[in-house]
């Protein structure tokens, strides 16, 4: 996603989530505020779809041919029902970032996901990779637990603790090697990371490690997007494919699939509200286009985020193992997003994380209120200020941090003239000691009605039935009564 995207476009795509998002939400979010972690669907999903699906990693996944080979989605346990990429509660996403070690140049490629037994609506573009390219791959998911099958060893894929539990909605392949090569190029002066810039609030623009942006499970999911036809077949989201699928009589029912995350909240909502510009790189599938990626966000955050720096804490539900804190699992997760391992200086202390999230997060949200209260959020009828306030409270709840309930602004309408009440300052506070282990959250869902031109048009679902509504939360990190799910075929 480039900085030229308008907030209107993203409002229409993300406002319809109806449960809780990958932005971490605990039980205090309203149904409407729980958006951003799912996609648009080309088909109507069942009432209770199978939340645990698997992706089959193709042969030689780090090569050009491997990147262009679709990943296939299937049910992890067929007895729980089928999995379909066009189902908003089951969509999985793959995103690669490529480094040219000779020049330090970065590029992005989003491998396609299709249902097992189907073919792409349009064949993926075969990317041209530089000599000795270093490729990292990251995964996002809109359900509960995504498992990896296939050629996982060849690509050094990690989806959780080996022979233990999965992270949940996140996995990666070859990420540590990618970040090592990128940091080497940075040190050699070959790679230049653009500065963050200054926002309208007079502060440095936020990153994915800013306590003013993060939630209970930071640095998860990706910014990849796909297209889906009315029959559930998928294609890479490129200008050419959009024109082809949107212009033909047989494929006018085309919708966009996307994976919500802190990243999408940052680049599609917070950055535009503050006048900030996200870092983008050339899209190898779409000549002339530049897009964001998780890897770009993490590299920029690693270089420019100042203290206090938000790093994956031990009470993050995605690094829980059998509902207990796990240093090993936290280190596996951190290594996939260019974060230092647990140490004396980066110890993942839940107390410190709770305190910083409540204090620093609250301060930044309050500071940015004049800008965020005027614009839309991922939730229909909720301005960005209220959304961030509710999300902060939900994250503190899920992390087990003691807190006071948030006070939303008087206006929930995302209009340019929205005026908050005098009590609109967010008020969540946290004690130094988490009260319980974090309660994971689930992804919300959305549907979209395609227009006759092929451009997704949405019909907002009832997203805010009441300011005290509490969504039903399904654990992201399951705690099974028997053996935990295998993380990734390791």
Name some characteristics of this structure.
globular; single chain; disordered N terminus; five-stranded antiparallel beta sheet; four-stranded mixed beta sheet; disordered C terminus; 14% strand; 490 residues
- Overall geometry: globular
Rg on CA atoms, Å: 20 Å
The portion of residues forming beta strands comes to 5-15%
Please report the number of helical segments: 10
Total beta-strand segments: 18
How does the helix and strand content classify structurally? alpha+beta
Mean pLDDT: 78
Low-confidence stretches: 1-43, 411-433, 435-490
**Sheet with the most strands, sense and barrel status:** 5 strands, antiparallel
- Give the helices and strands as they follow along the chain: HEHEEEEEEEEHEEHEHEEHEEHHHHEE
Tell me roughly what share of residues is in helical segments.
Answer: 10-25%
Strand order in the largest sheet: 4-3-6-9-8
| Cα-to-Cα separation, first versus last residue | 33 Å
Brief account:
With 490 residues, the chain is of the alpha+beta class. Helices cover 21% and strands 14% of the residues. The relative contact order is 0.21.
Structure description:
The chain has 490 residues and is of the alpha+beta class. It is 21% helix and 14% strand. The chain has a domain at 7-25 and 36-307 and 318-345 and 440-457. It has helices spanning 7-14, 64-68, 175-187, 239-247, 262-274, 294-304, 327-335, 350-367, 369-372, 384-398, and strands spanning 52-57, 71-75, 92-99, 106-109, 113-115, 134-141, 145-150, 157-158, 170-173, 225-228, 234-236, 255-258, 281-282, 290-291, 320-321, 324-325, 449-450, 456-457. A hairpin with a 6-residue loop joins strand 3 (92-99) and strand 4. Residues 409-476 have a biased composition (Low complexity).
């Amino acid at each position: 996603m480039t900085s030229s995207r308008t907030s209107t476009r993203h409002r229409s795509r993300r406002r319809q989530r109806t449960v809780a998002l990958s932005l971490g939400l605990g039980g205090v979010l309203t149904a409407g505020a729980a958006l951003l972690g799912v996609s648009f669907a080309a088909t109507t999903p069942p009432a209770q779809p199978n939340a645990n699906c698997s992706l089959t990693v193709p042969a030689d996944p780090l090569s050009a041919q491997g990147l262009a080979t679709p990943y296939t989605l299937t049910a992890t346990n067929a007895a729980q029902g089928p999995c379909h990429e066009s189902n908003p509660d089951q969509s999985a996403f793959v995103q690669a970032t490529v480094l040219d070690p000779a020049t330090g140049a970065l590029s992005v490629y989003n491998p396609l996901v299709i249902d097992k037994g189907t073919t792409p609506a349009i064949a993926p573009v075969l990317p041209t990779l530089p000599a000795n390219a270093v490729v990292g791959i990251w995964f996002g998911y809109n359900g509960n637990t995504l498992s990896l099958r296939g050629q996982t060893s060849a690509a050094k894929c990690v989806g959780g603790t080996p022979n233990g539990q999965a992270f949940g909605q996140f996995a990666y392949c070859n990420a540590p090697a990618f970040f090592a090569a990128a940091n080497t190029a940075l040190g050699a002066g070959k790679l230049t990371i653009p500065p963050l810039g200054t926002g309208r609030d007079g502060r440095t623009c936020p990153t994915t490690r800013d306590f003013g942006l993060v939630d209970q499970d930071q640095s998860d999911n990706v910014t990849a997007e796909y297209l889906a036809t009315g029959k559930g077949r998928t294609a890479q989201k490129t200008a050419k494919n959009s024109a082809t699928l949107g212009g033909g009589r047989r494929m006018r029912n085309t919708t966009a699939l996307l994976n919500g995350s802190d990243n999408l909240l940052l680049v599609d909502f917070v950055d535009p509200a503050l006048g900030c510009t996200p870092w983008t790189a050339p899209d190898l599938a779409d000549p002339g286009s530049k897009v964001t990626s998780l890897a770009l966000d993490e590299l920029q955050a690693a270089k420019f985020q100042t203290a206090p720096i938000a790093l994956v804490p031990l009470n993050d539900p995605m690094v829980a193992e059998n509902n207990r804190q796990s240093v090993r699992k936290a280190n596996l997760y951190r290594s996939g997003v260019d974060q230092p391992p647990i140490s004396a200086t980066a110890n993942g202390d839940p107390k410190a994380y709770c305190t910083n999230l409540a204090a620093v997060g609250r301060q930044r949200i309050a500071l940015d209120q004049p800008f965020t209260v005027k614009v839309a959020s991922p939730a229909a009828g909720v301005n960005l200020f209220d959304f961030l306030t509710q999300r902060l409270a939900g994250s503190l709840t899920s992390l087990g941090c003691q807190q006071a309930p948030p006070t939303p602004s008087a206006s929930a309408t995302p209009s340019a003239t929205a005026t908050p009440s005098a009590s609109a300052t967010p008020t969540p506070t946290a004690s130094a000691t988490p009260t319980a282990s974090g309660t994971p959250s689930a992804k919300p869902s959305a549907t979209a009605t395609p227009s006759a031109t092929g451009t997704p048009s949405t019909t907002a679902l009832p997203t805010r039935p009441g300011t005290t509504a509490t969504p039903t939360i399904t654990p992201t990190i399951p705690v099974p009564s028997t053996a935990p799910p295998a993380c990734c075929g390791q």
